[in-house]
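Can't paste images in this forum, so I'm doing it all in text. The chain is below; anyone willing to post the predicted structure tokens underneath?
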Amino acid sequence: MKWQGTNNQLENWATVFPISKVELRRLASRRAARELLQNLMAGKADAYEAYRSLYGLWCSNNAAVQELRSLFRMDGIEPDGRLSVTEEFRGQVLSLAMQSLAQLLD
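Text version of the structure:
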């Protein structure tokens, strides 16, 4: 079952149907990742800023967003270190974001 509502609706849904805080957090993390990836693909988000935000989600709840793993395993890129934001970096991020988004939507 995929959750497509807002965070407020998610919280309301959780009060009607018993759901653990862990599951609620997992659903919220996946929704946030989908939104970031969709904004990145639509050109509404900067590659570097979206990458950093996705990395923040990964660090806080990577069990919920395993689909993002490839973004943080790029050769020569240390996500928690200094990054050179080149066209090559942007291209890699967009390519991997597209793959990750497809997996998150499954």
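DSSP finds four helices and no strands in the chain. The mean pLDDT is 86.
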